[in-house]
Design a protein that fits this description.
The structure holds two protein chains of two kinds. By secondary structure, chain A is an alpha/beta fold. Chain A is about 35% helix and about 10% strand. Chain A has two domains: about 150 residues, Rossmann fold, CATH 3.40.50; about 80 residues, no CATH class. Chain A contains twelve helices and five strands. Chain B has 14 helices and twelve strands. In chain B, helix 12 runs antiparallel to helix 13. The chains are: A alpha/beta, B alpha+beta. At the A-B interface, helix 1, helix 5 and helix 8 of A face helix 1, helix 2, helix 4 and helix 6 of B.
């Protein structure tokens, strides 16, 4: 009789999100169907009716946007040995946090009018604002290949290979013409790599969806943007598309 | 003695987003019977205000992971109309080809991954890897083809980076187009197998006629632009979308409901099929015949079958578009430049789930002042509820588990996109 390998039990959950990261996970099966041999998926609402609560690893997509979400994520944190923030909404707040730049009541009234009272909401925030997160997979959406590498690393107990260097490095390695040199705007110099510099490779400047690198040279970045003729308002637009939560928390939004 | 049935599905599985089904029947009397959307609202229309025109489509793309090409397309169309930007012919062809990629991707996901498990008696596609490996590999292959088609044009399917106002920041090479054409031709075998599989399934028998609403064009099966038509005989320019939608608030739902000529209406593949059958590719019509489908089809469960028909159409039409691109010769094109001005525009397209509207107002600096998005799934929620109310009395004599499954299958048949439907809310333009 052959020894049965014990497969870790995995679950997927989501909060306020577009579910694009979970869809990217499903797409990873196109090239890595054997991932299903390595883990046991016990809970994945979008793809399966199977709903068990005995998971050990929880992938969570989405931002926390209302008090009820806090109860849910705390329960998930309690159950899971490993909690993984899946994608920008969970990692940095992503575009959900753009709502935080506006006065909260105004947002509710604009969108729901007289029905505003029915809708419970507060400033959108990443998972780490509420619970301890073990691993953060950046990106909007996540990168399929990076996701597979992270899973492989986790399965053998290694540190997930997520780079700390900026997107510029990946652009240079690809031999891309720099976006600034063709009249575009790009946050590559301060944004975390790992996506293969996909947007600049396709001609669109980096919008910072993977979050800033540790110790980004923000002053130098602002100088570059100023040199190409952006006003302070323009610069704030770039930094608050995917990084609004950080800009509000760091006080930069209030300062301008 | 009448039946007592209690169904409380908290978060329907195998749909995009969070929704509940609640049915309460006592002694044969239906006390409660509804589908409610409980997804967390994100307030997109509020926070795109104050943002420059070139940011908008990349932001609203994030409304949805499956129909991000759809949101981005409707959004750029609205902005292009508002600012008077005309796409080039090549730009139009690439927009249509990209759109076919998304329709294919989403329909493969829905038919194979979300709906098929119910017919094969499994909770998801995962157990099918053991028992029906060939079917799963076919689904993965088709989905990869669709994803690669989108990636060839715009970088990726979810949140297409190269799709911008005025066209694209990237142009595929002729070599890439030729290789993609070969793969699409090879996919015909997979499409045949798909029609065989889904035409053989025991589709639930349930008829309820409603009004079917979609875009329409005379010269092609409309996915982008056109006019809005309804099966009850109404036609509207896209700019008059609010005469169709007439939204209203409902307490049980974070998403609003809509109605037009009847208490509710349906959008999506079945609505498109009913209104635009003549514009389908001949092979798609043949596929429809395999299902015994010809307009007017009034069984909502066959929305999934209409998606299979559209998959056949999109594969063939993609080949046609690639042939046109290659015949014209592909040129590296930058997006059409924008003369910033004040303006207002409405963009509409048929995302996998139905007609989507994006409406923006810009000031003279190209900064968004007002935004409104009407999501197809919102337009379906009233109809889903009307279907549930009609179906429940018909199936009260069945075992409770079967009732629950059939109601879930009904909701799934609509392919609802609930994340989309709850970013959405009413806006008054003054």
């Amino acid at each position: 009789m052959s020894a049965q390998k014990v497969k870790p039990k995995v679950a997927f959950f989501d909060f306020a999100s577009c579910e694009g990261c979970q869809l990217t996970v499903v797409d990873a099966l196109q090239t890595h169907l054997d991932l299903l041999d390595a883990v046991e998926i016990v809970n994945f609402r979008e793809a399966s009716s199977e709903r068990r609560e005995d998971y050990e690893i929880a992938f969570v997509e989405g931002s926390i946007t209302r008090p009820y979400d806090e109860e849910r994520i705390k329960r998930i944190r309690e159950q899971a040995k490993v909690l993984i923030a899946l994608g920008a909404c969970a990692h940095t707040g992503c575009v959900n946090a753009m709502k935080n730049l506006l006065p909260p009541d105004e947002v509710r009234r604009y969108v729901y009018g007289d029905c505003a009272e029915w809708y419970d909401t507060y400033a959108a925030r990443p998972l780490s604002a509420v619970v301890k997160v073990d691993v953060e997979i950046p990106g909007c959406p996540i990168d399929k290949e990076e996701f597979v590498e992270v899973v492989k690393a986790l399965l053998v107990g290694k540190k997930p290979p997520i780079p700390d260097y900026p997107v510029c490095v990946e652009c240079k390695l690809k031999g891309n013409v720099c976006i600034f040199h063709v009249g575009g705007i790009c946050l590559g110099p301060v944004t975390r790599a790992g996506c293969g510099a996909i947007c600049p490779t396709y001609g669109d400047g980096c919008e910072g969806c993977r979050g800033l690198i540790p110790h980004p040279n923000e002053n130098a970045m602002e100088e570059v943007l100023d040199e190409v003729g952006l006003t302070l308002d323009d610069i704030m637009h770039y930094f608050t598309m995917f990084n609004a939560y950080r800009e509000v928390e760091d006080g930069k939004w209030a300062q301008r | 003695m009448g039946a007592t049935v209690k169904v409380d599905v908290h978060y329907v599985t195998r749909v995009e987003g969070h929704g509940n089904i609640v049915v309460d029947v006592k002694n044969g009397e239906v006390k409660e019977c509804r589908f409610e959307v409980v997804e967390a609202p994100r307030f997109f229309e509020a926070f795109v205000r104050g943002r420059p025109y070139h940011d908008i489509n990349h932001i609203v793309s994030r409304i949805c992971g499956i129909c991000s090409v759809g949101h981005s397309t409707a959004s750029t169309r609205a902005t292009e109309k508002a600012l008077g930007v005309e796409l080039t012919e090549q730009g139009w062809l690439l927009r249509k080809l990209l759109f076919h990629g998304e329709i294919l991707d989403s329909h493969v996901l829905h038919t194979y991954y979300l709906v098929a498990p119910d017919f094969l008696g499994v909770p998801s596609v995962i157990p099918l890897v053991e028992t029906h490996r060939e079917v799963v590999e076919r689904a993965l292959r088709l989905k990869k083809l669709a994803g690669d088609l989108c990636a060839m044009i715009a970088g990726r399917h979810t949140h297409p980076c190269a799709l911008v106002v005025g066209g694209f920041t990237h142009t595929p090479t002729e070599r890439e187009l030729r290789q993609m054409r070969e793969r699409l031709v090879a996919a015909r075998a997979d499409m045949d197998a798909t029609v065989d599989l889904f035409a053989s399934l025991p589709w639930p028998q349930f008829e309820r006629e409603t009004e079917y609403v979609s875009l329409h064009k005379e010269d092609e099966y409309a996915f982008i632009d056109g006019v809005v038509v309804t099966s009850d005989g109404f036609t509207y320019p896209i700019e008059d979308y609010r005469k169709v939608t007439n939204e209203y608030c409902v307490p049980s739902s974070t998403a609003k409901w809509t109605k037009h000529n009847r208490e509710s209406y349906m959008v999506g593949a079945l609505a498109r099929f009913n209104n635009n059958y003549d514009q389908l590719h001949p092979w798609a019509k043949e596929a429809a015949a395999r299902f015994g489908m010809k307009p007017l089809v009034t069984n909502p469960f066959l929305n999934t079958a209409a998606q299979v028909v559209e998959m056949v159409h999109c594969v063939e039409d993609s080949i046609r578009i690639i042939d046109e691109l290659l015949t014209r010769g592909v040129r590296e094109e930058k997006p059409v430049s924008v003369q910033v001005r004040a303006g207002e525009g409405v963009g509409a397209c048929e995302v996998p789930r139905g007609v989507l509207f994006h409406h923006y107002v810009y000031d003279e600096n190209g900064i968004c002042q007002e935004a409104n998005c009407i999501i197809p799934t919102n337009q379906n929620i009233a109809n889903i509820n009307a279907d549930i109310r009609a179906l429940v009395p018909q199936i009260l004599d069945r075992p409770q588990e079967e009732i629950r499954l059939l109601l879930e299958m009904l909701v799934r048949a609509y392919d609802p996109c609930l994340s989309c439907s709850t970013h959405f809310l009413r806006v008054e333009f003054v």
